[in-house]
Write a structure and sequence with these properties.
120 residues; mainly beta; 7-stranded mixed β-sheet; 4-stranded antiparallel β-sheet; 11 strands; 60% strand
């Protein structure tokens, strides 16, 4: 059993910052790629940023230069630092992890989602 627990969402004014965290726990042998996705009502979930186990990162164009993804492998945790937030960043943010279990099965897991609202 594996859980991804997110925290750090909330309401922020345009231009402000938030930091999201997502901690994985359970029967984890190792974690491969991790990432953050977001979804607004009526639209498909989209990738925001991803990070490999060795720290290689990728960002969607709309957040490049404003958001930073990082991870702490010892804590099985991924972070998303969001700066210069815009109203169009408003969404439910989900973390994702590709996890190798102690059984050596490789499974994709998702967090429960955390609301980020950017509004004055």
């Amino acid at each position: 059993q594996v859980q991804l627990v997110e925290s750090g969402g909330g309401l922020v004014q345009p231009g402000g910052s938030l930091r999201l965290s997502c901690a994985a726990s359970g029967s984890i042998f190792s974690i491969n790629g991790m990432g953050w996705y977001r979804q607004v009502p009526g639209k498909q979930r989209e990738v925001v940023a991803t990070i490999t186990r060795d720290g290689t990162t990728n960002y969607t164009d709309s957040v490049n230069g404003r958001f930073t993804i990082s991870r702490d492998n010892a804590r099985n945790t991924v972070y998303l630092q969001m700066n210069s937030l815009k109203p169009e960043d408003t969404a439910v943010y989900y973390c994702h992890a590709n996890i190798i279990l102690h059984s050596l099965a490789r499974v994709n897991y998702w967090g429960q989602g955390t609301q980020v609202t950017v509004s004055s």
